[in-house]
What we know:
Layout: E1 2-7, H1 11-21, E2 29-35, E3 40-41, H2 46-51, E4 60-61, E5 69-73, E6 76-80, E7 85-88, E8 95-96, E9 99-102, E10 106-108, H3 116-119, H4 126-137, E11 144-148, H5 152-164, E12 169-173, H6 185-197, E13 200-203, E14 208-212, E15 215-218, E16 221-224, E17 227-230, E18 234-236, H7 238-241, E19 260-261, E20 264-269, H8 282-300, E21 315-320, E22 324-329, E23 332-336, H9 337-352
Parallel strand pairs: 1-2, 1-9, 2-5, 9-20, 11-12, 11-17, 12-13
Antiparallel strand pairs: 3-4, 6-7, 7-8, 10-18, 14-15, 15-16, 19-20, 21-22, 22-23
Helix pairs in contact: 1-8
Amino acid sequence: MKNIVILGGGYGGMNILQNLIEQNLPEDVHITLIDRNPYHSIKTEFYTIVAGTSADKDVRMDFPEHDKVSYVFAEINKIDVSEQQILFQERSEPVHYDYLIIALGCEDNHHGVEGAEEFTESVQTFNKARSAGMAVGNLPAYGKVTIVGAGLSGIEVAAETRESRPDLNIRLLDRGQSVLKAFDTKIQNYVEDWFMKNDVGVIHGANVEYVEKDGVCDNGICYVNDVTIWTAGVRPNFLVRELPLEQDNQEKIVVNDYYQVPEQPHIYVVGDCASSEHSPSAQLARQQGEQISDILAAVLKGDKPKKPGKLKLKGTLGSLGSSEGFGEMMSQSMVGYIPRLAKSGVLWLNKRH
């Protein structure tokens, strides 16, 4: 038997699994998916878990059942590429692979800021989003929440938390001179105006020096707060960073045109772990996953895989609570109800698929 091992059941791993199942694979092929959780989690909606506006069951889905697929739900300790096996923290028996797909996603990048890892909450995993949700939900009236980072995640966490808890004092620390620096001025101004109208404080030019249990110190000023949530950048999963494989300047694994590690072409990398000209996103991981499944299916059948075409990302959508949003669709910037409705539609389609 040839064993395909998929590390991670996120957007990339899930898409690869689903597409491989539909590829009429040879009889001697088996797929093993490894994830810490016994379900696929919808990471783009973790901000609703933090704000308490969604239940856990609303942002997770069951993995598909298939006679060619088995699952291992455990924490990985090491990816041993020399022996072609996966080692676990609390499981003595390793899992061996013939083909490996690394889809482990990302984790917070604390940029060496003292106390950031120890004293901040996160939205990077389901468990961490739950922890952040408990911390925010248990705050008394007029509690203080500071969100570090004004990218897409930070904006959605701040807006959703404001709508969920109008009593809280919410502060957003933004390193730049405008929120959402990756978006155009129309969207930036709209979001800034939304925060002003909804009493969310935005501090620009922030440079967090250190974080303590009860506060954040920025440019010599220490803000006392009850909960600090870190959304100021990501980096590939630590298991990926430890691999003896070539990495780019963002610590992502360098791959060829077929998403293979050049020196070990039986290893494929997808999403946040793969070097790419595009910024990390669920959409990117899904599209790469579709291409990888086609490539690997051809390899397993003894055919020469076709070089994948250029990725065509359709844009980015973000929410400002339940009724407003923003986004770039078809190269057009949009704000208000329409992009919020579109985001809800995308979520519905993904769940249905």
